[in-house]
Input
Amino acid sequence: MSSENLVKRLPNDIAGTVCSDKINIVERSLYPWEKRCHALLDVLDYHKIVNTEEKRRGTESIGTEMAAKLSYYEKWIVSASNVLLQKGLISPNDIANKTKEVSDRYGVTL
Amino acid sequence: MSNNHDHSHEEHAEITHDEKPGYYEILEISIREILIEKQLIKAEEIRKQIEVLDSRSPVLGSKLVAKAWLDDAFRERLLADGNSAAEEMGITIYDDTAFTVLEDTETLHHMIVCTLCSCYPRAVLGLPPDWYKSKEYRIRAVHEPRAVLKEFGTVIPNSVQIQINDSTANQRYMVLPLRPKGSENFTIDQLEAIVTRDAMIGVALISL
Output
């Protein structure tokens, strides 16, 4: 297969590609963190800190492996973190320190 | 059931969330707290937005459908300009997105998808189900809709054309389903009660 197919179709442009898997028709409500994540991105969009297009672009440029392995909201929070870092609004140290504080708070080892 | 292999969303659904937070939840909590500490956002805004998310549900869409079934003039306005008709009912289509309602007829059935991501008329239907966002639905809806519908238990006769409508960031769709036979004397409340989210996406028909 020639590589130009990679160029013609971005990773998220999947309509009509090969798929024989059945649709997993389950209902579940959002986990609390997912709802908070959705609300967070809405608030960031409202304030034009990370707008919806930037978030979308972040989830689309996450790479095919992460795109396949992360769930919907996992992609959102990673995308938002990346955009915030890229814009210099938060620093890697901010994230390192705060995730350590939060994981200690819950008795979790990251 | 499905035969997803790797990267299935089933794996995520099986994790119980009354346990300790995982990596992504810790990241979410951390990003939120950092942004609040830097005064870029307020905790109150997150809380309020969660309430807004909770307030949106398919009940809103069902009100548009029921009214369209009973009121021909409203139906015409709804089909001509979904944004304005929704505003009439107190529903704001935020984001400046175009909101178009597609009418099913005896010879035409509509289905909604977003092949690129998960664009969905959240303002009238609330949050989309996982399957709408799944790669299986996004890949297959556009080129084998009848097979997809069959998995939902929906059979559309061959005499009825199926139109698949691909949503975008700027264009959201909702289906105005056929009013079922036998509902002729229903009150508006009764009509609202029979309209399902899946019928407004177009993967199900409304029956009594």
Notes: The mean pLDDT of chain A is 91.
